[in-house]
Design a protein that fits this description.
With about 375 residues, the protein is mainly β. It has strands spanning about 20, 30-35, 40-45, 45-50, 60, 70-75, 80-90, 100-105, 135-145, 145-150, 155-160, 175-180, 185-195, 205, 215-220, 220-225, 230-245, 245-255, 260-265, 280-285, 310-320, 320-325, 330-335, 345-365. A hairpin with a 2-residue loop joins strand 9 (about 135-145) and strand 10.
């Protein structure tokens, strides 16, 4: 399969790289909590505390998104504790769309893809140099896409080219940084984040305020902007002015129960039918022939759980006759049989009266 982005190797320098340093432990104002209870996380004496409250799990994610950065901190965990550092976490809690560095002090066995120091579910570490429970561990992370280097207690445990990995290349390239609370006590201190220059050439297709750049292209649907999202009711199509052939696309989608809609790509016009290009289906009915995340008429999506009224992260990667779809960080389907290989528009569809669909944070990465 294709690579979503061109590989670019860099030289790691741990000194004082150019960029802005962010004091994330100055206050909780830098963070937003997803799940957990009111006491699951706290900042006291410039330390981030992970507390067991019987209301786990919970995640603490930075309010700001980051692409490239140097991050260092120390962590101390209770016996047999499990936690994780999130890299490029999305905004809807579907953290599998990004990366997770497993922070745990379990002992025994060989390094694994789900053990201490792993890129959780993805890559086993070279070693697991975590110290005994109650001792401080030093962690350094260098993220300069596609290069990810991780040191724990002075030992290099990961040195990865994300663009060359069959799954990691589809992970979010930008997102929040965060920590996971699964019900064990832990402490984070000396947290230093230094931003590095962005290299993602993303093009926002929606400004969050109005429909600038978008035009109705058929149907009777009502398209409005509300609370930073494009909201659609009725039956019709909304086309963006930009044309693109090969690209990565990401957005958040939210629907009412049993809503029917879609995201078209390589769209030319509504009629004739062949000029509509291809559609990613939005239909939260797992028993349907083409459920949410399907490439309509070509590849059925997996029966992935989505919840009406909640934001879902949709990602689409298109190259020539190939397309791959991810829903909340999990692969939904793929095809190598796209019939329409040509520049075209991104077009949103609403396809059922009495329901609604919403779209926000629509970002395109054109690929030459």
């Amino acid at each position: 399969m294709f690579l979503p982005h061109a590989a670019l190797m860099v030289v790691v320098a741990w000194g004082a790289p150019e960029g802005r340093s962010v004091d994330l432990l100055a206050s909780m104002d830098h963070w937003q909590q997803v799940g957990g209870g009111p006491d699951s996380f706290a900042i006291e004496d410039r330390q981030l505390l992970l507390k067991w409250t019987r209301q786990e799990p919970g995640d603490l994610i930075t309010r700001a998104d980051y692409e490239n950065f140097d991050l260092s901190f120390e962590c101390k965990l209770a016996p047999y504790a499990e936690s994780g550092l999130y890299i490029h976490a999305p905004r809807n809690g579907a953290c599998r769309a990004g990366l997770e560095l497993e922070l745990a002090n379990h002992y025994g066995g060989k390094p694994s893809t789900t053990g201490p120091c792993s890129i959780f579910r993805q890559v086993a570490p070279r070693a697991t140099p975590m110290k005994e429970p109650g001792e401080w561990n030093g962690v350094k992370v260098h993220m300069d896409w596609p290069r990810l280097v991780v040191h724990v207690n002075g030992e290099t445990i990961h040195d990865l080219d994300l663009s060359s990995d069959a799954e990691l290349k589809y992970k979010l390239r930008r997102g929040g940084i965060g920590f996971q609370n699964l019900g064990w006590d832990g402490e984070i201190r000396n947290l230093v984040l230094t931003e590095l220059p962005d290299t993602e050439r993303a093009v926002p297709l929606f400004n969050g305020k109005d429909l600038t750049g978008w035009t109705v292209d058929g149907g009777q649907a009502q398209w409005t902007v509300r609370d930073g999202a494009i909201t659609a009711t009725g039956d019709g199509y909304l086309k963006h002015e930009k044309t693109v052939q090969d690209f990565d696309l990401r957005m958040y989608v939210r629907t009412s129960n049993a809503a029917n809609g879609g995201v078209y790509f390589r769209w030319l016009r509504m009629d004739p039918f062949r000029d509509r290009g291809h559609e990613i289906q939005i239909l939260d009915v797992p028993g349907a022939i083409m459920t949410t995340g399907s490439i309509y008429g070509l590849a059925r999506g997996e029966d992935l759980a989505i919840t009406p009224g909640q934001w879902e992260l949709l990602q689409l990667f298109v190259r020539g006759p190939e397309a791959v779809v991810y829903l909340n960080g999990v692969r939904s389907c793929a095809t190598q049989a796209l019939k329409h290989v040509r520049p075209g528009h991104i077009c949103l569809q609403m396809h059922r009266g009495g329901t609604f669909a919403e779209f926000k944070d629509i970002v395109l990465l054109p690929v030459k």
